UniProtKB/TrEMBL annotation:
Name the UniProt record assigns to this protein: DNA-binding NarL/FixJ family response regulator
PTM-bearing positions, type 4-aspartylphosphate: D54
UniProt cross-references to SMART domains, sorted A to Z: HTH_LUXR, REC
Response regulatory domain sequence ranges: 3-116
CDD domains referenced in this protein's UniProt entry, alphabetically: LuxR_C_like, REC_NarL-like
HTH luxR-type domain sequence ranges: 143-208
PROSITE patterns: HTH_LUXR_1 (PS00622), HTH_LUXR_2 (PS50043), RESPONSE_REGULATORY (PS50110)
MF annotations from Gene Ontology: DNA binding
Keywords tagged on the record: DNA-binding, Phosphoprotein, Transcription, Transcription regulation
Source organism (scientific name): Barrientosiimonas humi
Amino acid sequence: MIRVVLADDQEMVRMGFAMILERADDIEVVAQCRDGVEALEAIRRERPDVALLDIRMPKLDGLAVNRQVAGQTRVVIVTTFDHDDYVDTALADGAVGFLLKDSGPDLLVSAIRAAASGDALISPELTVRLLQRTRAAGSSAPAVPGVADLSERELDVARLVARGRTNSEVAAELFISLGTVKTHLGSIQTKLGVRNRVEIAARMWESGQV
């Protein structure tokens, strides 16, 4: 069971997220918090697998909470605001997910599961912008270790991941099964020496494959 602490200053949002998460058989919301201080206390008390944190909260915002707890629990930031600075700060401080509140129930559940399993998930519309900034910060097409070892099909999968596609969307576009996508992703991670799909995408942008 994935244990989750949920923090948002809007009661209706908290209730809505809790209902979505608790419909999943493998997720349990162990605490709901109205502000950052309550969230910090609940995380230290409950030691959840994942903390789902809003950014703009009273007393202590989600980014500040993330900085203090990212070493002990996996943090997914969820917010209405898609400011690039928020994304960069959250990820730099250890968050493993960043979602917009209108991302939908399926992506919310997927982000919690990804975080619990050591993976990372970012709203697709934010992923491309994040990786464009990564690419702009470096050279135009540096040699990235492992990319040359990818098969043509693995490159196809990796390029779609870099464009923010979900596993289901990759499967549909390439006319392959979801299981095959997951197999390819495992092989890609091994060859590139990365831990998750966000890092796969970063390698693709850095290498000029996207």
